[in-house]
UniProtKB/TrEMBL annotation, chains A, B:
Cofactor info, note text: Binds 1 zinc ion per subunit.
Protein name per the record: N-acyl-aromatic-L-amino acid amidohydrolase
Highest classification ranks of the organism: Eukaryota, Metazoa, Chordata, Craniata, Vertebrata
Subcellular location field: Apical cell membrane; Cytoplasm
Listed cofactors: Zn(2+)
Pfam families: AstE_AspA_cat, AstE_AspA_hybrid
Cross-referenced InterPro entries: AspA/AstE_fam (IPR050178), Aspartoacylase (IPR016708), AstE_AspA_cat (IPR055438), Aste_AspA_hybrid_dom (IPR007036)
Positions of transmembrane segments: none
Annotated positions binding Zn(2+): 22, 25, 123
Topology in membrane: Peripheral membrane protein
CDD domains: M14_ASPA
Catalytic activity annotation: an N-acyl-aromatic L-alpha-amino acid + H2O = an aromatic L-alpha-amino acid + a carboxylate; an N-acetyl-L-cysteine-S-conjugate + H2O = an S-substituted L-cysteine + acetate
HAMAP family with a match to the protein in the record: Aspartoacylase
Length: 337, 337
């Protein structure tokens, strides 16, 4: 790829902003409710006018939201694989499986031309991760440009781009239903709690994401650059009692809250409940994240580890209508300026 | 009360340390499990010997612990009123009501001479409260001396004594089953998460509490002094939508995490989800605590407010056997040195 090439990409006409995919991650729940209120007010006050982007606001798991729980029967955000979405639905199917198919109808169908152009799914974590975009791709220029724009905006919250290197057909989360998509994950915030600073950071993130989409749709060439991408390498579980499977150690105090600070071999990893220090035995220094995330105790994840690399992203602009028609007929989508 | 008087109090022969009264407050769960493990090991390694104090270790709500939830059907820590403990038990009684009666049999009966001498019930909060002892009395010298001892110990965690001014017959929490009792409440920690620093602070608190009980039982005169007591005055709920009852504001960022910092009239209290600041309209400066505690959203409490006053506590010593017998027969228990 040469730096002077501009990649032309289809217009982002429909964007979904989803909150409450996990019902006790409250920033997204209250932000989507607030945006719904604003939308209602705007509709009452103004004439309907042609918008540069249509925003679909979704409360993903209303039953879990009502109970302020992550999920009712099973984790909704693991239900969006092709296999699950296209499989049969028995009478005893868990609520979240039914709901995932409803959401796929509303925002997808996943993988089809009818799917929304971009899904931004709002999440919170108890880990000290700041604002992260989590995506399945390290070469989705829409996701990476959105991130680059957020990072360039004035905010006092640290931002990172996390890449889960999962094959497209195995992608499982709500954001995978859109043509592009990411989770916007912000912490630290206890689940079941809303903290003003985290809510404000999420509001900021969503507003700047939508601003960027409008800017992109306006036809301006958006210059390229570099983005640090953290690609997930592996998860580490808590040390556990072999009989009871109960955890026998917590994250070491020297590691707690130090997400994205390089973890070196022999650095303290856990502190057992009797006071002993357990060290990181990996051979490669890696970047820890999701350190002590509440919801991952049941998934057997005490922290995840990532490799960091710098990704060059090209200049992009939105396709003209003619280009889009040509592209849909199978012609190329890159041009030289 | 004159300063040179020494108050003689009955021996503290049996102390209960309880964890998991709320099943997702994990420091107490893991600490009690660790202490049970140590107890088992000590029993295997040593001859049974006469202990200066007998410690009963309890996991209060095993079913909630297993599910990592605060409670299964109803808040166990509101089930210990005399009325509830002595009322009938229907077939459809919630689990926690059944369990409260079991615990009353094990540690009480509440109000009887058979009750354990001291209950230390371990709790966590998402609020930035440090270590607090919460008790129903501001003149229970055992509770206040324990607190004074903890505060004098070397620890980098701030400590406060909170007094809930509830009539004895209305006391509702597990710690009210003992002759003396308090909750040891430590935060900030998200529910469902265990943080090393909070676990270590709790371990420190329990060890020093037990050290003090042994010291008291040894017969030494323990000198008096002063303790700051925060007496709860009132609770404040979140602003709510009149139709949906959903909250429409979060704790203001200038108040969040500032537990026990004096709140003055007109100080910022909430920030609405549209960004507006709501101020404290009370006329008296008061001390906020339990600011943004996760479990109190459902109870309609955004924060509690307290008045602070300095309480003088007398020197105490344990009664001799003769004194204890005399005291049980109705004679006085104060002496001049």
């Amino acid at each position: 790829m040469e730096v002077d090439k501009v990649v032309c990409l289809p217009r982002l006409s429909r964007v979904a902003v989803c909150g409450g995919t996990h019902g006790n991650e409250l920033s997204g729940v209250y932000l989507v409710r607030e945006l719904l209120k604003e939308e209602k007010k705007a509709m009452e006050e103004e004439e309907e006018e042609e918008k540069p982007v249509s925003v679909v606001l979704v409360l993903s798991n209303p039953w879990a939201i009502q109970q302020c729980r992550r999920y009712v029967k099973t984790d909704l955000n693991r239900c969006f694989t092709h296999a699950s979405l296209n499989g049969p639905l028995s009478d005893s199917a868990p609520y979240e499986l039914i709901r995932s198919k409803e959401l796929n109808t509303l925002l997808g169908p996943k993988g089809s031309p009818e799917a929304v152009d971009l899904v931004c799914d709002l999440h919170n974590t108890t880990a000290n991760m700041g604002l992260c975009l989590i995506a399945y791709s390290d070469c989705d220029w829409i996701c990476l440009h959105t991130f680059k724009h957020l990072q360039a905006s004035t905010s006092n919250i640290p931002m990172r781009y996390i890449h889960f290197d999962v094959p497209k057909e195995e992608s499982y989360s709500l954001d995978s239903v859109g043509k592009h998509g990411f989770a916007m994950e912000i912490g630290p915030q206890p689940h079941g709690v809303v903290r003003s600073n985290i809510y404000t950071a999420m509001k900021f993130g969503v507003q700047h994401m939508l601003d960027w989409v409008r800017f992109f749709n306006s036809g301006t060439i958006i210059e390229g650059g570099f983005v640090d991408v953290f690609t997930m390498v592996k998860h580490i579980d808590y040390p556990r009692d072999s009989e009871t499977h109960n955890i026998i150690a917590a994250i070491h105090p020297q590691l707690q809250d130090r997400d994205f600070c390089l973890l070196h071999p022999e650095d303290p990893l856990f502190q057992t409940f009797s006071g002993e220090t357990l060290r990181y035995k990996g051979k490669e220094p890696l970047y820890p994240f999701f350190i002590n995330e509440c919801a991952y105790y049941e998934k057997g994840i005490a922290l995840s580890l990532a490799r960091k690399r710098r990704v060059m992203i090209p200049a992009i602009r939105v396709q003209t209508e003619q280009e889009q028609q040509a592209s849909e007929q199978g012609f190329g989508s890159e041009e030289e300026e």
